[in-house]
Amino acid sequence: MQSMEPMPGNPWPHEMVLSIDDSPHGLHELLWVREAWGLEVEGDDLPPLLAHGPAPLAVEGSAAPREWAEAWPALWHAAVDRLAHVVGPGQAERMRRAADAAADESVGFDDLLALIDGPNWRESFGDEAFRTPEAGASWEAWQHAHRQTVNLRRPLTYHETPEWVALPALVPAWQAGLEKIVLIPCRGDFTRRLGAAALLVTEPTRHDPLRYARALRSFAG
């Protein structure tokens, strides 16, 4: 998101660039697994439940959810921490060159890709949570419903975007280093600063002008 060229009277700074990640895949997998499998997760600073969660899956006779529940908080925090490292175009290009150079080395492309994607559920537990027909159908249905919700919420005009509406709060946040907004489809408020350049908010927060402005002001300090 950026103004294409300087415009007299345009309050959006021409050089201000901001990316919106409305589908952080690793976080979505974690959030879906927690609710679909009914994990009883305990820990500090964990996100609220999904605004529109999947139907619970049958877990009788399976010991996996207990192990998953114990690991879930650490995986969540690790995934969120990784999102604090904003990858810009220059860094992405350097990583692509590094991947090419690593083709004949011991470091694989997947290791380099992890620098962008970060820790994820499947690396720790494989595909078991998504493998059964019921689970696979639930995961696909939930992803489809989320994509539909995101598409329906996309503003028709530039001036209807939440960022434009919250511009008085956005500009100071950008001046303080904000480059990326990460959205999670959870209930209520859950605003967290991710490192020096990213901010995590819920989708309801972004689409509420007062709450979004408050979240952006929290980044600016």
The general outline is elongated
Number of domains: 1
Number of helices: 11
Average pLDDT number: 84
Alpha-beta classification: alpha/beta
Tell me the series of helices and strands, N- to C-terminal: EHHHHHHHHHEEEHH
Secondary structure topology:
Elements: E1 19-21, H1 25-36, H2 64-83, H3 89-101, H4 109-117, H5 121-125, H6 128-131, H7 133-153, H8 162-165, H9 167-175, E2 180-184, E3 192-194, E4 198-202, H10 203-206, H11 209-220
Structure description:
- It is a single chain.
- With 221 residues, this protein is an alpha/beta fold.
- Helix content is 51%, strand content 7%.
- It has helices spanning 25-36, 64-83, 89-101, 109-117, 121-125, 128-131, 133-153, 162-165, 167-175, 203-206, 209-220; strands at residues 19-21, 180-184, 192-194, 198-202.
- The chain has a four-stranded mixed β-sheet, with helices on both faces.
- The chain is elongated.
- The model is unreliable at 106-110 (pLDDT under 50).
Keywords:
221 residues, alpha/beta, four-stranded mixed sheet, 51% helix
Short description:
Helices cover 51% and strands 7% of the residues. By secondary structure, the chain is α/β, with parallel strands linked by helices.
